[in-house]
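Try this one yourself first.
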């Protein structure tokens, strides 16, 4: 885990993606690069814009989408008051950022690796495929409800093959679940690695198939976070008897600083 720091960054731009109804609800937020020595795809930051003022006291957790030598990109969906206020950011605005926080996904360059993303779970995989030393060993399956233009798929597709399935009508979800099982079975046969990120029901499905198929699998959890550093105990999850630290087995751990990435056999969902 990298040493986390707090810093104030400049908003470089805010780019809308797709359109749902009469407005965009998906945005790529590009910030000036923080002074970090390193980071790992799968980690996140806590962001609090100045425009939150006094009426929004808590920062918002955002997964790190991508980093370059000049900037950091976070991707978010407008879901409530905080993200609505973030959608009003403009070039030159200031935001307070804490990070990088949590841990990241395993990187095994020579191991066949399957990425499974549900909806906004696609975000950490943009950085993962761009940072991976051997992206030809990676493929991705992406399930989503909104139009695909709402998500940063092009940034992934330029590095690795991506198959997408949209849940638009009855039966689509069953097809997606069947495809997940089929693809995970292929990687189990190859003794590969499966990495997954998305909403909890999606993670439960992946966890179930990982146990049945005996494939090594990591899941990134999307528990609600307030502080991001383990102090508020608002994002806890229960561990299993496979947890590596004996005194924490079948107990509670904070997702923000013990995760958000966990081996699928070590937590209950």
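Now uncover the answer:
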């Amino acid at each position: 885990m990298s040493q986390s720091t707090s810093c104030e960054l400049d908003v470089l731009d805010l780019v809308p993606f797709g359109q749902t109804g009469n407005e965009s609800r998906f945005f790529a937020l590009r910030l000036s690069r923080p002074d970090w020595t390193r980071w790992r795809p799968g980690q996140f930051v806590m962001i609090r814009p100045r425009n939150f003022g006094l009426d929004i006291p808590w920062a918002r957790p955002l997964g790190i989408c991508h980093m370059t030598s000049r900037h950091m990109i976070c991707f978010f969906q407008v879901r409530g008051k905080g993200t609505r206020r973030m959608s009003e950011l403009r070039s030159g605005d200031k935001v307070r950022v804490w990070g990088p926080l949590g841990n990241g996904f395993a990187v095994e360059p020579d191991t066949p690796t399957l990425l499974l993303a549900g909806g906004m779970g696609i975000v950490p995989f943009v950085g993962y495929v761009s940072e991976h030393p051997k992206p030809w060993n990676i493929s991705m399956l992406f399930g989503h409800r909104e139009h695909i233009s709402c998500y940063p798929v092009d940034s992934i597709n330029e590095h690795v093959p991506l198959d997408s399935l949209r849940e638009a009508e009855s039966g689509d979800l069953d097809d997606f679940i069947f495809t997940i099982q089929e693809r995970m079975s292929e990687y189990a046969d190859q003794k590969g690695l499966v990495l997954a990120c998305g909403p909890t029901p999606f993670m439960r499905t992946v966890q179930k198939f990982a146990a049945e198929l005996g494939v090594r699998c990591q899941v990134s959890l999307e528990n609600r976070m307030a502080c991001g550093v383990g102090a508020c105990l608002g994002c806890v999850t229960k561990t299993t008897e496979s947890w590596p630290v004996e005194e924490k087995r079948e107990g509670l751990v904070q997702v923000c600083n013990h995760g958000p990435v966990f081996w699928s056999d070590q937590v209950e969902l």
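Discussion: The chain is about 20% helix and 30% strand. The longest strand covers residues 5-17.
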